[in-house]
Amino acid sequence: MEKPARATTASMQSLLAHYFESNAPDASAISAPDAGSVAGAPRALSTPHSETRAKSPETAVPLTASPSSLVAQPDWPPAARALIDSLMRENESLREQLQQQALHLQSAQGQADSDVLTPTLNRRAFLREVHRAMADCRRYGEDACLLYLDMDGFKGINDAYGHSAGDAALIYVAETLNASVREGDSVGRIGGDEFAILLRHADLKSSRIKAMRLEAELMMGTFEYGGLYLKTGGSFGVRAYAAQASAEAWLSEADAAMFLVKKSSR
Fold first, then answer.
1. Which of 7, 25, 121, 229 could cysteine-pair with 86, CB 3.0–4.6 Å?
2. Of residues 127 and 31, which shows the higher confidence score?
3. Which distant-in-sequence residues (6+ apart) come within 8 Å of 71 by Cβ?
4. How many CB atoms lie within 10 A of CB 29?
5. pLDDT at 99
């Protein structure tokens, strides 16, 4: 037995159109009083009112209907039923594939924005958030500040305990920063042992207070590595939004402010 042809909308409509045209009652059959008594023939309507209703667009089969609205009827030819069933299965399969692709795309987007080690944004994604914040500041007159952190003692941890201990220190700092921000703020690892925080709806005074609290928390806290409790700290620079030319320029100003803080503390 030959397999039914692969279903397409055009082939299905062509087949159904041919089927309904070949089985449509002619005028003589409609006017014949006993046409409805013939076995297997379409039921004829004998009254003029019924004849008009039979030809009404409301009762016509919509050949352009969506596959989900076309349900194969028992009296249709086997080829027509097979085509409709095949088309509906194919559409369902395509719908599932699209859903899977959307999930993969969402996952890939998240991985592309995340730092390879710490639970923060990478530099590119963080700068994108800074750019968006700058647009809101210009449009709505909002306040925003950048905090730039350079870790203290990171090289010493790497030298004394190895790079795995250094990775643990980076993760500890990232988790501490994440725990301190509000919804809508962003934390990013800019590179090496440097992090940045974007504080939306925050002025310079409150942001400096935030930086001092974070610096004290890092100084007093510890992280566990190989049964040891190690310490790390950091120096913060704070820079408010002041119509900087770009996200990179704003970040560089916060970096320069951090360098001045670190230099003054030596």
1. 7
2. 127
3. 84
4. 14
5. 80
Q: What rounded mean pLDDT belongs to the chain?
A: 80
Query: What's the confidence (pLDDT) of residue 75?
Result: 72
CA–CA distance, 218 with 173 (Å, rounded to integer)? 7
SS3 annotation, the chain: CCCCCCCCHHHHHHHHHHHHHHHCCCHHHHHCCCHHHCCCCCCCCCCHHHHHHHCCHHHCCCCCCCHHHCCCCCCCCHHHHHHHHHHHHHHHHHHHHHHHHHHHHHHHHHHHHECCCCCCECHHHHHHHHHHHHHHHHHHCCCEEEEEEEEECHHHHHHHHCHHHHHHHHHHHHHHHHHHCCECEEEEEEECCEEEEEEECCCHHHHHHHHHHHHHHHHHCCEEECCEEECCEEEEEEEECCCCCCHHHHHHHHHHHHHHHHHHCC
- What pLDDT is recorded for position 50? 43
Spatial neighbors of 73 by CB under 8 A, at least 6 apart, are 81
Tens digit of each residue's pLDDT (9 = 90 or more) over 74-113: 677 888 778 888 888 888 888 888 887 776 666 555 568 9
Find, among 188, 183, 94, the residue nearest to 149 by Cα.
188
Please give the single-letter amino acid code of residue 207: S
Name the token pair of 168.
């643990």
Residue 109 vs residues 78, 103, 123: alpha-carbon distances, Å: 46, 10, 14
| 223 residue type, one letter | F
Joined tokens for residue 37: 């008594």
Q: Is pLDDT at 154 greater than 80 in this prediction?
A: yes
Q: How far is CA 126 from CA 13, 198, 221, in A?
A: 52, 8, 26
